[in-house]
Amino acid sequence: MNAIRRRAGIGLAVTALVVPVTVALGSGPAAAASCTATTGPYQKQVEKFLGRPVDGRQSLADCKAIQGFQLKHGITPSAGYAGTVTWRTMSTMLAQRAAGTNPNKDGRCPTNKGRIACVDLTRQLTWIQDGSRLKYGPVPVRTGKAATPTRTGAKKIYWRNINHWSTLYNVSMPYAQFFDGGQAFHSTTKSMWNPPGSGGCVNMRSADAKAYWNLLRNGDDVFVYGRKPGT
Length: 231
Fold this sequence. Notes:
With 231 residues, the protein is of the alpha+beta class. The chain is 31% helix and 24% strand. Mean pLDDT is 88; it is low at 1-31.
């Protein structure tokens, strides 16, 4: 009987050790805690962006920092690997910062239209200008993914709906201002740097979409140019 009890006790101890491991390796939020030890192709660039020691070798601290960035912006898999999508996102952020308060320095968005909303797909930026004078922005946006790109060219806002509901995607589109078929400026709760992108609309943060709503009207010009990174 004592031997049976001892064996039972051993069995319970083994079970107690196995259960936490099973939870840690399962699906769901717990799985996000796993971290890769593999050095990525953009390790040094990512380390520099995140303010980590730039040695080009993955460490646990590097991985946790990269993983935090990935989780914040919905980059999957969020295993802390310094891969193409992560570095592309960071590169876009750097280009946005470099735009400063002169986003139309290259003059690609027309300055002879009066008030116009400019959308630069390459830098994932938008701003409103009146002639050459900046009126709002630049601010980051989330434009169409490769399969549903935001179409380039000269457009005009033709319909606005402050509380629009998309029957196509079954989602809310607050402050929607349509300028090309079903493509519109509107707010979203997603990160502006969340890949792979929208269904073609120009997603904006709520405060920015509201500002656009207050500044633009039907008939105002919109100019979309460039090419979204990764498309």
